[in-house]
Design a protein that fits this description.
Elements: H1 11-20, H2 30-46, H3 52-70, H4 80-89, H5 105-127, H6 135-145, H7 153-163, H8 169-175, H9 181-208
The chain binds ligand 1Q0.
Length: 215
């Protein structure tokens, strides 16, 4: 069996997953959302063991969601909207503090949702960067503006160290497996607004149901 996490990363493929996660009614299909993250994990794995702790967490979060999808309640987990409704209606979410549902779909997806904001900010910086700009700085700035506020001191320190291990911009573009730097910039120009749309839909839904601070 092929281990999909070890296959070669392709930015285009990730983009396709995030594109297909939006239904015509702007619902978000969890299956495609997860497959977008799994594609990103492939890239992370190709960057070396320094990023292992991040990749491990991302894999575990995607696995939790896939397990819900495959469970007998699977149909309720088809979209983010149906998951939120199902888990709230059936009181399957720890709302104020951790209790009996430490791994609800809602809180798990919220972690990936916050990471999506980081990704969008990072890719936008990458898109508008110049050849000599440092990927570690772009990544750190995007992280500080988004995910960092949700992380403990220890995780912030570990993430900060890992960022120094990022490849330089030309090598990073190479890893994306898209083509020339111009083509990468072009694909990034399509990726960023798409990620933003998916992010925004989830953000509004979570806001509406007061789910943005789930423990
Ligand atoms: C390329 C560099 C990657 C840098 C990733 C930046 C994010 C740093 C995140 C550090 C996470 C540390 C591990 C554990 C965190 C958890 O405590 C936290 C909260 O969960 P919980 O259960 O404890 O409440 N988890 C999270 O915040 C989720 C983090 C998921 C991060 C997923 C990152 C996947 C990365 C993909 C590589 C993207 C490469 C970008 C360029 C590709 C071009 C399209």
């Amino acid at each position: 069996m092929v281990d999909s996490e070890n296959q070669k990363f392709c930015l285009q493929e990730v983009l396709e997953s995030f594109k297909s996660c939006l239904s015509p009614e702007k619902e978000i299909y969890i299956e495609h959302y997860v497959s977008g993250w799994r594609g990103l994990v492939k890239l992370l794995n190709s960057l070396g063991s320094l990023f292992g702790f991040i990749s491990k967490d991302a894999v575990s979060k995607t696995q939790i969601l896939m397990n819900f999808l495959k469970s007998e309640n699977g149909p309720h987990y088809a979209t983010v909207q149906s998951m939120v409704k199902f888990e709230l209606d059936n009181k399957l979410v720890d709302v104020d503090k951790k209790g009996i549902y430490p791994e609800s779909g809602c809180r798990t997806l919220l972690r990936l949702h916050r990471a999506l904001r980081w990704l969008q900010l990072f890719l936008e910086r990458l898109r508008t960067s110049k050849e000599d700009d440092k990927t570690s700085v772009m990544c750190r700035d995007a992280y500080n503006e988004s995910l960092a506020q949700h992380h403990t001191w220890l995780i912030r320190k570990s993430a900060g160290m890992a960022f120094y291990g990022l490849p330089v911009r030309p090598a990073f573009f190479e890893v994306m497996n898209v083509g020339t730097p111009e083509q990468v910039v072009d694909v990034l120009g399509k990726a960023v607004p798409l990620l933003y749309e998916v992010y925004q839909i989830t953000e509004e839904l979570y806001q509406k149901h007061n789910l943005l601070d789930l423990p």
